[in-house]
Amino acid sequence: MSIIWNKENSTITLQTKNTSYQMKADSQGVLLHTYYGSRIEDTDMSYLICSIDRGFSGNPYEMGKTRRQYSLDVLPQEYSCFGTGDYRASALRVRNADGSQASELRFTSADIRKGKYTLEGLPAVYADKTEAETLTVCLRDPYTGLEAELQYGVLEELDVITRAVRIINHGNAPVVIQKAASVCLDWQFGAFDWLTFQGRHAMERNLQRTAVGHGIQSVGSVRGTSSHQYNPFSILCEKTATETSGGCYGFSYLYSCEFLMEVEKDQAGQTRFLCGIHPDDFAWTLEPGESFQTPEVLMAYSGEGLGRLSRIMHQTIREHICRGEWQHKRRPVLINNWEATYFNFTGEKLISIAKEAASLGIELFVMDDGWFGKRDDDNTGLGDWYPNEQKLGCTLQELSEQVEALGMKFGIWFEPEAISEDSGLYRQHPEWAVQIPGRKPCLSRNQLMLDISRTEVQDYIIACMSRVLSEASISYVKWDLNRSMCDKFSSALDARHQGEFGHRFVLGLYRILDTLAQRFPHVLFEGCSGGGGRFDAGMLYYTPQIWCSDNTDAINRLDIQYGTSFGYPVSAVGSHVSAVPNHQTGRKTPLSTRACVAMSGTFGYELDITDMNDMEKDEVRQQIKMFQSFYDLTQYGDYYRLTDNKGSCTVWEHADPDGKEALVNAVFHGIEANPEPVHIHVQGLKEQELYKIELLDTGDFLESRIDRWFRESDILSGAALKYAGLTIPPAWREYQAFQIYIKRLERQK
Length: 749
Ligand code: GLA
Fold this sequence. Notes:
Blueprint: E1 3-6, E2 11-15, E3 19-25, E4 31-38, E5 92-95, E6 106-114, E7 132-140, E8 146-155, E9 160-169, E10 175-187, E11 192-200, E12 203-211, E13 215-220, E14 233-238, E15 248-254, E16 259-265, E17 271-277, E18 284-286, E19 291-293, E20 296-302, H1 305-320, E21 334-336, H2 338-341, H3 347-360, E22 364-367, H4 389-392, H5 396-405, E23 409-414, E24 418-419, H6 424-428, E25 448-449, H7 455-471, E26 476-479, H8 501-519, E27 524-527, E28 545-547, H9 554-565, E29 573-574, E30 576-578, H10 591-598, E31 604-606, H11 614-629, H12 631-636, E32 638-641, E33 649-655, E34 661-668, E35 678-680, E36 690-695, E37 715-717, H13 718-724, E38 726-728, E39 737-744
Parallel strand pairs: 21-22, 21-31, 22-23, 23-26, 26-27, 27-28, 28-29, 30-31
Antiparallel strand pairs: 1-2, 2-3, 3-4, 5-10, 6-7, 7-8, 8-9, 9-19, 9-20, 10-17, 10-18, 11-12, 11-14, 13-16, 14-15, 15-20, 16-17, 24-25, 32-33, 33-34, 34-39, 35-38, 36-37, 36-39
The protein binds alpha-D-galactopyranose.
């Protein structure tokens, strides 16, 4: 039993294998938060609460003259309200029918049941009845009848807790929700660092670690997507936390639209974390009897550092968020024509790439942007999802058949949520574009967004895509979106309801994705928004992989994939080998380095493979074999960051969860002559077992100067590799990559 409701002391404790989380309804009915951290058996943790009269922190009316130390402004709470004496950032802010913004929530009931709750129309962690329990706690505002149903899912074995909230209007007047966080978490003690993942187009999810100081710090998005700029995943950790030690709390928001994560350190040095829909563009009217469901947050605590926290996130996403046929099925090695041709291709050119790719062992050919409508550049055609047979020189079906005749699968690119002004669809339905009547819209990549908050627009996209997916043999879809949203407005909503647009938009997106996934269960969907502009756990519920970044430079990718690895598994990270000089940075890196980096992702190629010489083609053949032989290890193994990205070499590792084997990857950048050794400590092995170390020949060792760095006789124990460590061979040229394979020796019978 992972949820314990102790009615004697009014505590409810959520127990996972290694963590405890506790709340307590106090004598006033306020739901206090008493603890989250390493597991503690049945204890009322409210002994930790130390309230003193802080002055200017008011007291609920019922406290009268005597209890000035009781103030909502300082008590740790499960779900804080605006306007009634808690001056910190609040979880709930509403506008009541009389114009006031106050609410206060008091405990009314709780319910515990087997299994994990689901959320209609929204992504959510799933688990079967034996793996999870659900707690629902009802809080009610005695004055207005507004109810908040706090939902908790507990996945005991995984050390995971999920949270979401349903707001119900039991009153007799409408209420406008202005802010409804999915999680509010208070700590009375401790000094924290906040790890957030910031970036920009083509340079997403760079780790930023800042000390939490007094005031409110926040990251978020008002761009209509989760955004390149700030990712909806963050970590609060002890200041001293490292990869292998210290307390860390991770929060992953299962939402692909506008979000806000806030951290506040208050007057008493207490810390509050909040995460929910961004309130700037949000206002949701609840008529009497109506309810609103917030999206879900996935939370985990690791007492053993950041690495373990990441592995919990990875496992939860892989096993309890990603769904469908492709969740566990071996994903194909693909080739995409975008960086090979951009818009400038013919069917014949595509087939020539596919032919060469097939001969090297590539399994899927993806035709990117430019195959439909009138689209030879990025100014036109979005919305007209009809194959341009003139450009292709054949029908889509014929093209797909030609690819399949080569022994490959065929995939295709879409940008379903976008519309070009120069398109048949816009001429027919200008009111379907997101813009404010009477105001010129802001264009981005010369395009607008489609108003998919409207059911008829959703149905149009479903119909168009279903037609294309049925008329040819298509095994893969890249689902792109190439702008941020602004001029938010739907001509289908009246003025009172415009604040609902953003959330209704993403509900529409989720409905389209769900419908298509059900209709075409064999199709592998890859998410994308100009690379990683919508890289979030919500999208991973519908698309098990996401194109990680439009930046394919192996060295920049080290940063991007390093940051991404904190919250997301390798199996979610779309990563390709591209040409040199790299199209984004002009950098030249060895083919082996590009492959080494792409192998810590879904792996594929994105270059004109017909331009490669025979030696390069041989190398590609070897790389594909190698990726396939390490597939389970890289995609499903435990991930360890062995260095940060600041030095001259980045090292990371995939280890089999049973300690049978491991693959250590090292890429040098910023090489120096006569370098200091790069020394790492291998993780995830069994200390008592013996392992053989092998430096893999990744294709360019012909001129090797390292001359068997590890000898045949190099057999080391797991303990030696962990505690004494291993030295990476010195690089002899910039951007050198090494892959070191560590295999357990079978014991003699
Ligand atoms: C986005 C994607 C690219 C490519 C282009 C096509 O930028 O991230 O991979 O598909 O669109 O226009």
